[in-house]
Design a protein that fits this description.
- The radius of gyration is 15 Å and the shape is globular.
- It has four helices and seven strands, in the order βααβββαβαββ.
- A seven-stranded mixed β-sheet has the order 1-2-3-4-5-7-6.
- The protein has one domain: Gcn5-related N-acetyltransferase (GNAT) (Aminopeptidase, 3-Layer(aba) Sandwich).
- Strand 4, helix 3 and strand 5 form a beta-alpha-beta unit.
- The protein is about 30% helix and about 35% strand.
- The chain is an alpha+beta fold and about 170 residues long.
Amino acid sequence: MALQEVTIRPARPDDAAGIARVYNEGIEERMATFETEPRSEKYTREWIENNPERFPILVAELDGRVVAWAAVQEYRARECYRGIGEYSIYVGSDARGRGVGKALMEALIDAARNKGFWKILSRVFPQNMASRSLCARTGFREVGVYKKHAELDGVWRDVIIVERLIEENMD
């Protein structure tokens, strides 16, 4: 199905319910995060409201409804890592396979570039082929595997480290 009427923009506090809905779906599916506790609208609103300006949070809307979100957050507190961001991206099940994830990831890379980041990275479950494919299509490389990185529902899970350089910010 072709991408139709997708709007990508910075998140606003009134997007909290939509972001929480999409994230909670990801938590329930157990394919994209070690988190197990659902996020409330209140928690999500406070996250958006208290997010430092230098860390972009974006949403994708279809027909005026938040169907996906992506964010860059601090990777490490040390000054030498200031230009590295850790990203998250979640696409609701009703929007998958429509190009929303790719459009949102490209917008997130641009937002990170505009904020001066020289690298964004994350960790992906090996069996999450949709995320791995999205990373490959948007210029990420798989760096390696953290073995038994954490437990999820009593099972030790590996993660694949992915990174994308933003070379124009490396001058």
